[in-house]
Write a structure and sequence with these properties.
Layout lengths: L5 E3 L4 H9 L3 E5 L8 E5 L5 E5 L2 E7 L5 H8 L2 E7 L7 E11 L6 H5 L9 E15 L15 H7 L3 H10 L20
Antiparallel strand pairs: 1-8, 2-3, 2-6, 4-5, 5-8, 6-7, 7-8
Amino acid sequence: MCPLGKLYEVIDERLRAFIAAQPMFFVATAPDSGGHVNVSPKGYRDTFAVLDERTVAYLDLFGSGAETIAHLRDNGRITVMFCSFGRQPKILRLYGSGRVVRPDATEWASLSGLFGREHAGTRSIIVVDVERVADSCGYSVPYMELGGERPLLDDHHGRRTAEEWGPRVRRNTASIDGLPALDPDHPAPAG
């Protein structure tokens, strides 16, 4: 039987270490009314940063859609989940309010330096003000061995020409439910 989870006041050093050890995380958002709930897996260890005890951020890379951005614009609600596939059975959820930082925003320079290598398809940085930190046992999560990071997304974006980014940005201006996502003037990645 799974014991009850624990609530934490802040993201302490032990939780930071747990977060840093995970090779991936999941982001969940939903629109205010109707529409689709979205859960997105996120890879590349160097794309997540704990800024302080109540603030985290991650690099948002161009993918198949812009649901997270649309939902954050709609209501700001977001949950980030880390799940251990190794020896320690643990699930950690960070509940909070998120906001989108565009590459042309003033704070971009100070935030972008918190992450590892450059990723060719970086669309924005999502900053989350964490309101609730909770864990649960993860007893039913399988053991899995990491074979490595897939370079496919970085490789794919790295081959895009400057001319190919405009249509990509335009495809991300609305969610699957028609909510506004990227602004039409959203900057294309510099890489």
